[in-house]
Amino acid sequence: MAQTHDTRPSSDRRPAPGKPAPSAAVRRRGPDLLPYALVAPLAVFIVGLAIVPAIYALTQAFFRVQVLDPPTRFNGVDNFTALADNAALVKSMVNTAAYVGIGVTLSTVIGIAMAMAVQRKFAGRSLVIAAMILPWALPGVVEGIVWLGIWDANVGLFNSALTTVGLVDQYQVFLGANRWLTILLIEIVQVWQIAPLSALLVLASLQNIPGELYEAAALDGCTAWSRFRRITLPLVRPGVAVAMVQALILTLNIFDQPYVLNGAAETGASLTMQTYFISFQNLDFGQGYALSLVITVATLVASFAVVKLVYRRVEY
Amino acid sequence: MRRLGVAFVLVWSLLPLYWALNISFQTNAQITSRPAHYVPSDPTLNNYRALLVGDGDLPAQIRQSAANIVIECGLATVVTVVLATLAAYAFARMRFRGRTLLLYSVLATMALPAYATLIPLYRLMSEAGLVNTYTAIVLVYVSGFLPVATWIMHNYMEALPVAIEEAAQVDGASRMQVLTRVVLPLAGPGIVSTTIITFLFAWGQFLFPLVLSSDISTQPLTVVITALQGRREVPYGLLSAAGVLAVTVPAVIAMTLNRYIVNGLLAGSVK
């Protein structure tokens, strides 16, 4: 941007990276209220509608909270033991683990593939990138409805295509029949939504890799596969780590896709769906708080583990 | 290899949407024929007519929930972007007590899963008598999107050169004048990115409005269409048309303004 250039040398006045710029405030006497006025609304929202509710939920997990059957009283870990004894919930926990495993793997692989497909310039590249991020921008529940048109037992494209090419002789029920197939098909729908962000994150890392590395490798006679294994993969690790963490958080909290594609059925119900059923249908808020706490802790621990395992500083 | 990859991206991203569009232009008899019609043989607008035209229950609900989603997303986006921009300016350009703590709190709330505060926020709104109001939905959306919006704006503003702002201050501009006359025009692309991303996040919400609105007076389109799907007797053509209606706005935004989305998402996540 030309208009931002200053003709005077400004490097001496620029703040060190990571430090805020010096402003008139520093030179003035007395407390400077302007920054507080600017951040006050943000602070009110974050404290009042995120931090305090989160801490409140944390404590309420150890209370018996039933709106229709008061009183509310401390009950130690009873909510957690009740959850552990709930067979449907344990099943949902396994379902969720499957969603996470499939989702993180598929979205990372597809994300890397899509990023590599649009890595270099070609005619129409910006249109392809626009198409690529389109599924990211759409509501999850509506994507469930859209994909129902693919997986449905009566009108689905998948059934029609399979019979047209002769792989099956009649329409099959895919959703709800076999538990693992149901989970796989539902998770593909979520991957459709989250893989674009993975692709963008990987793409940003890819574009930092110096082209000379590939030229040198090509001169040394490396195959395309070994260039991918030895140059691309190690150097995109930071992008892949961030992509995996976002996929992990989103898959661990999956709700929209199984809710639309499979309803409340145990074959596909997720932990977040159970939180909703327990809290807003059984109106047992205490157990709902406890389950939310379990999901939150699992999310934080797993995110930390992924960062530890995958993230490494890259130097070119 | 490249062509194959590009073909995969296009088919994977667009085929499901093409299929919904295709079905939405077919009659029930055409949809249930086997094999399916891969292109609409005799396109009809009947599904869209049934959803939008006339004074039946269904079109009335669709119209009301479409108005609701526009109002809720619009209000939440405006409030979020204004507050995020002000806070980001303070974070990027001023030193004050508690700055680091507040910035870390922003990051911490970003790491929290969205549904961690579902129950407490519902109970808070219920205590305050705000369930089934636009206010509750907008407040919850703003609290949910403000951290990431602030983070994106903060990263944009930090990247702007300081010199021009200092020159304006030397010329006697107050800090608020520097913000409105110098920083805001320069941060324009960042503000556009933040606005689009916030709006798309809000448009995609389902569970929060499901819990916070009890009837059609505040339910957004996403909630009403999903309820439609839950009723087994609703024909699939109608459902597809409803789906197409709900994705039109975000799809047009994503296809035309994708440059801003890409920049904003990258500013918000890789740091």
TrEMBL record, chain A:
<feature type="transmembrane region" description="Helical">
    <location>
        <begin position="96"/>
        <end position="115"/>
    </location>
</feature>
<feature type="domain" description="ABC transmembrane type-1">
    <location>
        <begin position="93"/>
        <end position="306"/>
    </location>
</feature>
<dbReference type="InterPro" id="IPR035906">
    <property type="entry name" value="MetI-like_sf"/>
</dbReference>
<keyword id="KW-0472">Membrane</keyword>
<feature type="transmembrane region" description="Helical">
    <location>
        <begin position="127"/>
        <end position="150"/>
    </location>
</feature>
<keyword id="KW-0812">Transmembrane</keyword>
<feature type="compositionally biased region" description="Basic and acidic residues">
    <location>
        <begin position="1"/>
        <end position="15"/>
    </location>
</feature>
<dbReference type="GO" id="GO:0055085">
    <property type="term" value="P:transmembrane transport"/>
</dbReference>
<feature type="transmembrane region" description="Helical">
    <location>
        <begin position="33"/>
        <end position="58"/>
    </location>
</feature>
<comment type="similarity">
    <text>Belongs to the binding-protein-dependent transport system permease family.</text>
</comment>
<keyword id="KW-1003">Cell membrane</keyword>
<feature type="transmembrane region" description="Helical">
    <location>
        <begin position="289"/>
        <end position="311"/>
    </location>
</feature>
<dbReference type="Pfam" id="PF00528">
    <property type="entry name" value="BPD_transp_1"/>
</dbReference>
<dbReference type="InterPro" id="IPR000515">
    <property type="entry name" value="MetI-like"/>
</dbReference>
<feature type="region of interest" description="Disordered">
    <location>
        <begin position="1"/>
        <end position="26"/>
    </location>
</feature>
<protein>
    <submittedName>
        <fullName>ABC transporter permease</fullName>
    </submittedName>
</protein>
<dbReference type="GO" id="GO:0005886">
    <property type="term" value="C:plasma membrane"/>
</dbReference>
<keyword id="KW-1133">Transmembrane helix</keyword>
<keyword id="KW-0813">Transport</keyword>
<feature type="transmembrane region" description="Helical">
    <location>
        <begin position="235"/>
        <end position="255"/>
    </location>
</feature>
From TrEMBL, chain B:
<feature type="transmembrane region" description="Helical">
    <location>
        <begin position="101"/>
        <end position="122"/>
    </location>
</feature>
<dbReference type="InterPro" id="IPR050901">
    <property type="entry name" value="BP-dep_ABC_trans_perm"/>
</dbReference>
<dbReference type="Pfam" id="PF00528">
    <property type="entry name" value="BPD_transp_1"/>
</dbReference>
<feature type="transmembrane region" description="Helical">
    <location>
        <begin position="182"/>
        <end position="203"/>
    </location>
</feature>
<keyword id="KW-1003">Cell membrane</keyword>
<dbReference type="GO" id="GO:0055085">
    <property type="term" value="P:transmembrane transport"/>
</dbReference>
<keyword id="KW-0813">Transport</keyword>
<comment type="similarity">
    <text>Belongs to the binding-protein-dependent transport system permease family.</text>
</comment>
<feature type="transmembrane region" description="Helical">
    <location>
        <begin position="236"/>
        <end position="257"/>
    </location>
</feature>
<feature type="domain" description="ABC transmembrane type-1">
    <location>
        <begin position="66"/>
        <end position="257"/>
    </location>
</feature>
<dbReference type="InterPro" id="IPR000515">
    <property type="entry name" value="MetI-like"/>
</dbReference>
<dbReference type="GO" id="GO:0005886">
    <property type="term" value="C:plasma membrane"/>
</dbReference>
<dbReference type="InterPro" id="IPR035906">
    <property type="entry name" value="MetI-like_sf"/>
</dbReference>
<feature type="transmembrane region" description="Helical">
    <location>
        <begin position="66"/>
        <end position="89"/>
    </location>
</feature>
<keyword id="KW-1133">Transmembrane helix</keyword>
<feature type="transmembrane region" description="Helical">
    <location>
        <begin position="134"/>
        <end position="153"/>
    </location>
</feature>
<keyword id="KW-0812">Transmembrane</keyword>
<protein>
    <submittedName>
        <fullName>Sugar ABC transporter permease</fullName>
    </submittedName>
</protein>
<keyword id="KW-0472">Membrane</keyword>
